[in-house]
Amino acid sequence: MAAVLNWEFIVGHANYWLGIILMMTGLYVVVSRGNLVKKIVGLNMFQTSVFMLYISMGKISGGTAPIATGNPEEVYSNPLPHVLILTAIVVGVATTALGLALIVRIREEYETIEEDNILDIENAMQRDEDREAGSMI
Amino acid sequence: MLATFAPLSGFLLHLPILQVIIPLITAPIVVVIGIARIGWLLAFLASIASLVVSYLLLMQVIDGSVISYQIGGWAPPLGIEYRVDAANAFVLLILSVISTVVLPYAKTSVEKEIRAGSQTLFYTAYLLCFTGLLGVVITGDAFNVFVFLEISSLSTYVLVAMGAERDKRALTAAFDYLVMGTIGATFFVIGIGLLYMMTGTLNIVDLASRLEPLSGNRTVQAAFAFIVVGIGLKLAIYPLHLWLPNAYTYAPSAVTSFLAATATKVAIYVLLRFMFSVFAPEFSLASGALQYIILPFGVIAMFAASIVAVFQADLKRTLAYSSVAQIGYMLLGIGYFSNTGLSATMIQLFNHAVTKAALFMAVGALVYRTGTSFIPKLAGLGRQMPWTSAAIVAGGLSLIGIPTTVGFISKWVLLTGALEKDWWWMAILIVASSLIAVIYIWQVVEVLYLKEPENETVVKEAPLSMLLPIWTLIIASFYFGLDTELTLTSARAAADAFIGAVSPIAGASQ
Fold first, then answer.
1. Would A84 be classed as within a structural domain?
2. Which of B134, B135, B168, B292 has the most other CB atoms within 10 Å of its CB?
């Protein structure tokens, strides 16, 4: 295992390392930020890292863009991961749009997009309900 | 016999694609027409058509045969394949039955809970959600599963958020669900990517055969972990269930009834498909995951979620937590890793779908008349809404697992599976967790029947358009509790399709 961890291995997998960094950054932003828009940004970063993963694995060393050149010797990159990721990008855009639309509606109803404030409001609603329940039983 | 009839044979050949295409095409038509009443009618017709298609499909594959449909004539593994066997035909039938029963109910409920301008959009989102769920189940292509999963999830977020007119917390519930659902789906797609890296294929059958020599490979193990966690989020496996109670509580009643009966069931199916069809059961990590993750979390869910359900003041939330607990039973069946265990999971899939849909619809009927599902406010409704209340009691009995109900059948098969393995302690745990269900159901019964009504206002019984669907499912839950021929046969055939397909001895020897 130690023999594999040489300089060439580390540099050769640069896009995978970056993908992992991007993925963890995105996930961390989703978990740690209280602002809902920032959460969506984090979610976007997280999804983008997957795009990188897929596109990296479609690359074949020495391969060109997968457009038929007529030369039988030609080496092409694998187009399938690219096509898959086009679909995933569309899904990502739809998710972002829906997330932002929800944030707009949340802003209208709660007048804040900070998670802490929203939680305070919801906890107050919950307390009122509990008090009501207590008085009835 | 039908296939010999010439005009029908062409139609029969294209059943697998019709299953998905019918609701998919109907969805935009509903938007274009823009009249809620017609939108509902189209959605209902599409749902009936799906029911017919899925019934015909199940009849073709119940003997263990497999239908392979090539989209656009591209042969698998390169083209996308729709693959129907006894397991997914059974799930398809559950989905379309529930949709067909919930839609007549939805019409009345939606008119009250959602403002007129949004009603056509509601039916569109509903149809897209239905399409997505059907697609996830029928497809034989791993990436296609992701695409359909996202179609159903995105429309589910919209449907949940539509509850905002009754309670603004629906919005935050939908947002939380969106964040967690997207993380889950992304994990799933990472797993698929890693598998593609190792095998160069996305076809589920092809994947299975190419993964066999790779069972010790680190990348494949990582892929397995990503897929299980990703699906686990969609499935609400116990520690990943946090999105579920809020989403179910604040969504419109019709949505809750539909989702509770279908969405998590589809996720269970995907989990089974990947655990048993893609990764061979002998795959070391898979059996380890069954033993040390799925089984313990299933047991924890049975108890923890049931206990939490006891302390809820909102009936919808009680039932939502009870759903998490019932998912625990399904996981338990998977964790047995035996033919009986999988049959128990499949039959619990059907039984819980019927029971929970009926219960959520009955609660929705209470909401329709009283405007709340808050338990203390339901005092004395047993006399004012006798049919709805009786349905809640009957559904509750099935949740507990009283003999003659479907709930009893699934627990019976689960117990049989436990005793087959000499796990008598597991049998005790199953019975003990059922007793907790007695507590939360009794609380509701007590409030409905034994408490005096709070105020003098007269509450009318729910309209017939709601009572009929509710009682159809309640009667079904008793009918299939007595006559288990159809469900048990289908569940066994489904279990065979999972375990038998990969290795015929795995079920018997384990």
1. yes
2. B134
Using a CB-CB cut-off of 8 Å, the residues of chain A touching B375 are: 133
| Proportion of chain B above pLDDT 70, given as a percent | 94
Band (B71; pLDDT cuts 50, 70, 90): confident
Which residues, in sequence order, are CB contacts of B317 under 8 Å at separation 6+? B245, B248, B249
Residue from A16, A87, A100, A102 to probe the interface with B (highest B Cβ count within 10 Å): A102
Tell me the CATH number at A129: 1.10.287.3510
pLDDT at B6: 54
Q: Are B406 and B353 a contacting pair, CB within 8 Å?
A: no
Per-residue pLDDT tens for B154-166?
A: 999 999 999 998 8
Domain of residue B393 covers: 283-510
Domain of residue A48 covers 16-61+75-136
B219-245 per-position pLDDT tens digit: 888 898 899 999 999 998 888 888 999
The mean pLDDT of B286-296, rounded to a whole number, is 80
Distance from CA of A69 to the nearest CA of B (A): 22
B157/A contact by beta carbon, under 8 A: yes
Cβ-nearest to B161 among A102, A110, A118: A102
Assigned token pair, B193: 């990517």
State the Cα–Cα distance between residues B125 and B113, nearest whole angstrom: 16
Residue B200 lies in a domain: no
Q: How many domains does chain B have?
A: 1
H-only helix segments in B339-484: 339-370, 381-384, 386-400, 406-420, 424-445, 464-482
User: Sorting pLDDT into bands at 50, 70 and 90, what band is B507?
Assistant: very low
Looking at the partner chain, which of B168, B196, B374 has a beta carbon nearest the beta carbon of A133? B374
Q: Which tokens go with B384?
A: 């004012």
Say which residues have a Cβ less than 8 Å from residue B144's Cβ, sequence separation at least 6.
Answer: B80, B135, B202
The b-or-e profile of B184-199 (16+ CB within 10 A means b, else e) is bbbbbbbbbbbbbbbb
Chain B environment of A90 (Cβ under 8 Å): none
Nearest to A52 by CA among B452, B193, B138: B193
pLDDT of residue B98: 94
Chain B 283-312, CB below 8 Å of chain A: which residues? none
Q: Which of A119-123, B84-88, B189-193, B214-218 has the lowest mean pLDDT?
A: B214-218
Structure ipTM: 0.92
Residue with tokens 């905002």: B164
- Higher-confidence position of B281 and B243: B243
For residue B241, give the nearest of B291, B164, B314, B298 by alpha carbon. B298
| Cβ proximity of A58 and A82 under 8 Å | yes
- The 3-class secondary structure across B266-310, one letter per residue, is HHHHHHHHHHHHHCCCCCHHHHHHHHHHHHHHHHHHHHHHHHHHH
Q: For chain A, first and last CA: distance in Å?
A: 66
Number of domains in chain A: 1
